[in-house]
Amino acid sequence: MEATERKTCMVCGEPKDEGITIVTEFICTSCESEMVHTSAEDERYPFFVKQLKQLWVRFHI
Ligand SMILES: [Zn+2]
Predict the structure, then answer these.
(1) CA 60 to ligand 1 center in whole angstroms
(2) Which InterPro entries does the record match to this protein (predicted)?
(3) Does residue 2 fall inside a structural domain?
(4) pLDDT per residue as tens digits for the range 4-40
(5) Residue 9 alpha carbon to ligand 1 centre in Å
(6) Looking at the predicted structure, is the pLDDT value of residue 61 above 60?
(7) Is 26 in a helix, a strand, or coil?
(8) Ligand 1: centre distance to CA 61 (Å)
(9) Residue 1 included in any domain
(10) How far is the centre of ligand 1, averaged over its atoms, from the C-alpha of 34 (Å)?
(11) CA-CA to 31 of 20 to 30 Å: which in 3, 8, 11, 53?
(12) What is the pLDDT of residue 51?
């Protein structure tokens, strides 16, 4: 039985139940909160920016 449809997070690539969908991309809650708490000095910041760049491009049209 499939009660909930899992979506694949665009950031971590894991199938998750909870998260947000921006335009057509899904981001899980853990990645979302992680991004919020990631500063520009963090070594993971460029990774998040890279992953999200395609979203912002579409989002700002
Ligand atoms: Zn994730």
Answers:
(1) 23
(2) Sigma-G_inhibitor_Gin
(3) no
(4) 678 999 899 999 999 998 878 899 999 989 988 889 8
(5) 5
(6) no
(7) strand
(8) 25
(9) no
(10) 9
(11) 3
(12) 81
Rounded to a whole number of angstroms, the distance between the first and last alpha carbons of the chain is 40
Q: What's the 41 CA to ligand 1 centre distance in angstroms? A: 21
Q: How far apart are CA 33 and CA 36, in angstroms?
A: 5
Residue 53 forms part of a structural domain: yes
How many domains are contained in the chain?
Answer: 1
Say if residues 32 and 19 touch (Cβ distance below 8 Å). yes
Residue 43 lies in a domain: yes
Q: Evaluate the CA torsion angle 41, 42, 43, 44 in order and state its sign.
A: negative
Distance from residue 1's CA to the centre of ligand 1 (Å): 24
Q: Tokens representing 5?
A: 């449809």
| Tokens (6 digits) for 45 | 């910041």
Ligand 1 mean position to 14 CA, how many Å? Answer: 6
